[in-house]
Here is the input.
Amino acid sequence: MASVLIIGATSDIAKATARVYAEEGFDLILASRRSEALDAFATDLNIRTGRSVDRVDFDVLDYSSHDAFYETLASRPEGVIVAVGYLGDQEKAQSDFEESQKIVDTNYTGIVSILNIISNDFEERRSGFIIGISSVAGDRGRKSNYVYGSSKAALTTYLSGLRNRLFESGVHVLTVKPGFVATKMTEKMDLPERLTAQPEEVAKAIYHAQKTGKNVLYTKGLWKWIMLTIKNIPEWKFKRMSI
Amino acid sequence: MGFLSWGNYPHIKSKIFRFDKPERLKRIIAENTDLIPFGNGRSYGDSALSKNIIETRKMNYFLAFDEDKGEIRVQAGVLLSEILELVVPKGWFLKVTPGTKLITVGGAIAADVHGKNHHVAGCFSESVISFSLMMGDGKVKICTKNQNKELFRATCGGMGLTGVITEATLSLTPIKSKTIHQTTIKTQNLKETFEAFETYRDTPYSVAWIDCLAKGDALGRCLLMVGDFSNDGDLSYSNKWRLNIPFSFPSFTLNYASIKLLNFGYFQKTIGRITQQKVSIDTFFYPLDFVDNWNRVYGKNGFTQYQCILPKEASYEGYERILAKIADAGKGSFLAILKLCGAENENYLSFPMEGYSLALDFKIEDDLFALLDSLDEIVAEYGGRVYLAKDVRVSRDNFEKGYPKVTLFRALRKKYNLTQGFSSLQSKRVGI
Ligand SMILES: Cc1cc2nc3c(=O)[nH]c(=O)nc-3n(C[C@H](O)[C@H](O)[C@H](O)COP(=O)(O)OP(=O)(O)OC[C@H]3O[C@@H](n4cnc5c(N)ncnc54)[C@H](O)[C@@H]3O)c2cc1C
Ligand SMILES: NC(=O)c1ccc[n+]([C@@H]2O[C@H](COP(=O)([O-])OP(=O)(O)OC[C@H]3O[C@@H](n4cnc5c(N)ncnc54)[C@H](OP(=O)(O)O)[C@@H]3O)[C@@H](O)[C@H]2O)c1
Here is the structure.
């Protein structure tokens, strides 16, 4: 049975996506740095869908462990979804390099490390799909979150290049750019209801986009137009704005 | 932020508390008063509304399923519909289900809901092997019919006022098909309706749709639908596509004439006196679930459901008066349901008693509550009661007349120090 590897599986978006893939008949390998926290979740999915749900330990910042992590997986996954992310504290990051580094390494460096390994395998097998969860925050740098935003911009660019490279091998790469999503990451923020997606909605959109071979997914969809507008604001004007 | 119950009335502002771990729920309970758990908001009135609401729907993991024994352990926010999707294909069904599957297990226990088979299977609590309850001190008590017996009896039917049910183990009933053999009997008046119920009382599932606007000789005419699971071995079952009513209808669309038409149409549809049908689980048990948000047809002002029960001996006389009063008032709905109930259980606030229960929807309007108060008087006169899960307006006095075991319930709330911590608009109104 085909399986999907989900990296950063404790994320709310990842959990909702895991559920959709299990319902669609995939076995799951849930990778996270707190795999014991996924026990009840895995049992639930297994009862609901009858699919096997494995848990493995994984820390995206522990680069040297990544080869062994992938080598020792019980089976080669058909697809991988990377949901790891760290929003961090922008103000802190401005004066504390460690915070900046943690943001950049979690959202970018660590993901490059693991996706390099996985993409080589998929390329060799000439099949598979790779889904990376980036963010609309990577579409333009804003004073309120540009450390996070720039790490996501790097990830978006990495995924775009990867898609270009793997196209010939028949491996599909999907870049997901959520706008606001109601998850642990944003629970302390006061998000505008109309622009905020639920994780379940994001999960369905991801599955559908992967299945239909879409390259870049904005979710909710109207973020595509919002970001288009924001990207088109000239720099001389943008630098004076607070958005 | 506000949560609404199914009747879209009343509208209040509440603080919503969410949690993902038991420790967090414990803290919410320790630090706040006037809390009430909220399931899936399918109660019609103000049972799940308060200043402070605890959202339980997201606590929705399946914990274990024993396919051989037909036992399932779930967190309290799991919907009955989710359970059915899992268990029907394996040959199991809920022992007791209400007329909607879109309710949580917590809500089913808290209202001790009943179904079309109450006369043979009792309330939802009959299927509850055990549940865990988090009370005011944040400690979790495991309750069964024997262990923490009084908490079991208070919580089943206790409308969320004894604490938060966090998980439950349910026993299921075996089935051999996803299809129900249904017999529909058309009656001409109330007398025939009751006779038909008695004739078919050994059939496990029964419900009558009363044409509550019929008057005079036709008063109480109905379509009685009785049925049981078939034996054909076909257990394929999945969620069907549903319609959605996307916004509140302007409230004038539901005037007297349109109600009358709907009722009449439903009644005329069946031609012969006795007919047979093969219908699906969803058509038989959950006809209203096909249309999402059908409650919006009543418009922005909302609606309520009046559900009462009368002891069997008093049912004919009592309902003759009640139906006549409703017909005279020119109010009433396309939903008028008569059900047969079996013996009362030992829970303190469960609704069913040996007799007949009637339920009707009413659009909220100025002179409605006076009419409903006058129905309460008739119900009290015959020793009946109204159902808290549907209620939004019953007076403390009429409530107490119907529920003599309320004294036990109040004493238990005091004993476990729950009166400050948990309350709803309803509990304040009726004094529990
Ligand atoms: C179309 C329709 C048909 C219906 N048919 C029937 C029927 O045939 N028979 C019947 O008996 N009822 C029926 N009902 C009523 C419904 O079954 C009950 O109101 C049920 O309690 C709703 O459950 P809920 O999960 O939506 O809970 P809510 O409506 O959110 O809450 C109902 C009560 O349960 C409490 N509660 C919810 N979760 C918990 C928890 N985890 N711990 C403690 N308390 C909790 C709340 O505090 C509240 O008092 C029907 C309702 C509708 C809309
Ligand atoms: N929520 C939004 O509005 C929003 C918007 C745009 C993009 N996104 C992106 O969507 C993705 C999912 O986020 P979410 O909203 O679901 O938030 P979330 O629940 O906070 O998820 C973040 C995930 O990253 C994991 N993680 C962090 N550091 C890690 C590390 N060193 N090793 C392994 N895992 C690590 C976290 O694991 P722990 O549980 O162990 O901490 C968690 O599973 C992220 O990439 C996020 O940037 C979210």
Summary: The interface with chain A takes residues 20, 61-65, 82, 86 of chain B (CB under 8 Å). Chain B is about 30% helix and 25% strand. The mean pLDDT of chain B is 92. The CA atoms of residues 178 and 281 of chain B lie 6 Å apart.
